[in-house]
Amino acid sequence: MLSLFLLFLILKLQYKHKYNHMLNIALFGPPGAGKGTQSKMLVEKYNLAYISTGDILRTEIAEGTELGLQAKDIIKKGGLVPDEIIVQIIEERIQTNTEVNGFLFDGFPRTTVQAYILEGLLLKMNTKLDCMLSLEVPTEQLRNRMLERAKKENRPDDNQEVIEVRLKEYDTKTAPVANFYKEKEVYHGIDGLGSINEIFERLTSVVDQTLEKSWINLVLLGPPGSGKGTQGRKLAEKFNLVYISTGHLMRQEIKKGTEMGLSAQTYIEKGDIVPDEIAIKLIERQIHKHSDANGFIFKGFPRTIVQAYILDGLLRKLESTVTTTINLNVSTLESIKRLTARGKTFSSRAYDTDTDIIIHRLEQHDKRSAKVNEYYEKQSKIDFVDGVGDEDHIFERLCSKVNDSFKKIR
């Protein structure tokens, strides 16, 4: 139990920030490629926080801050501002934007060192960069754009001499960043010529494809007898997800007479929660067995606040997270009726035939479920569905909630 308690504390510290499933984009490209224009459109479409090192630095300079004064002379000469300054500014902006779907980085990273810095910053937030979008524009076109912009926006840093320095800096220092992200298979070259809307469509097409590749992970909550198993299987089939029921997996282990099965049997027969070490092994095995899945439906796990942290840890290890949770609302009396009725059928389980065990299971659920619900409520990742009524009608209610949740991330 000590090891689980330590795991709980570690994961609690790890998830002290309220970051859910996030979409993080870096918009890449040489000066004058149109990153600023496209960034604003992407930010609005996907509800992202916009982090432009150029804009932030100009603000710091205008306000005469210490960081601004340090950066002023370097920018005038067309040089790159030191990473010590950049990382402080970016981390501050990240920490003050917690209610967005993710971040769009414009002008960062510009070097492979900064690419590693960004990896570290996002890892600290328990997330990652989903895609690097690189706007590709011919050099002559870039020169013309930047000179035109200098006239319109009165930018002293966009004169001919500085433009040449900036383009050279890009070629020698920034371009190798592409290889960093190509190796991670998140780099996407985008044709930067054409109308603003045409370029935007190319960008969003790649972003949407990236989102389609993301796992969708649904947790189905509710008391014993709420119908989680029946509805979970139907949802898995409809949304092409893999159904993972820790209870079903443990019963299979018991039937096979495995070591895990023998360890779990005593707990299951009494209606108690099986030790987390067993559940972790079973879930990990199923996830690895279906590594090419679109996502998973978890039924019967998590049942405790510790298990909620464990599930987050398991999914984070695979660069994923819980998408949403749905709690099937069923009264205690209704649960007792259903479990008692099931005890008289061929699908009866050992703990369905004893009223005392049924009540014990329901008491255990009531005792622990409030904290699990609260955990997901704080992350805005829980919905409640009436679990009483015709099976098909309940399924329709669940599908509606699942579709609503998927729309938020896609």
Describe the fold and architecture:
With 410 residues, the protein is an alpha/beta fold. It folds into two domains: 23-212, P-loop containing nucleotide triphosphate hydrolases (Rossmann fold, 3-Layer(aba) Sandwich), CATH 3.40.50.300; 215-409, Rossmann fold, CATH 3.40.50.300. It has helices spanning 2-14, 35-46, 53-62, 66-76, 83-95, 112-124, 139-153, 160-174, 177-183, 196-212, 228-238, 246-256, 259-270, 276-289, 305-317, 332-342, 355-378, 391-409, and strands at residues 23-28, 49-52, 102-106, 131-136, 187-191, 216-221, 242-245, 295-299, 324-329, 382-386. The protein has a five-stranded parallel sheet with strand order 2-3-1-4-5, with helices on both faces. It has a five-stranded parallel sheet with strand order 7-8-6-9-10, with helices on both faces. The longest helix is centred in the last third of the chain and has 24 residues, at 355-378. It is elongated and about 85 Å long. Residues 1-20 have low confidence and may be disordered.
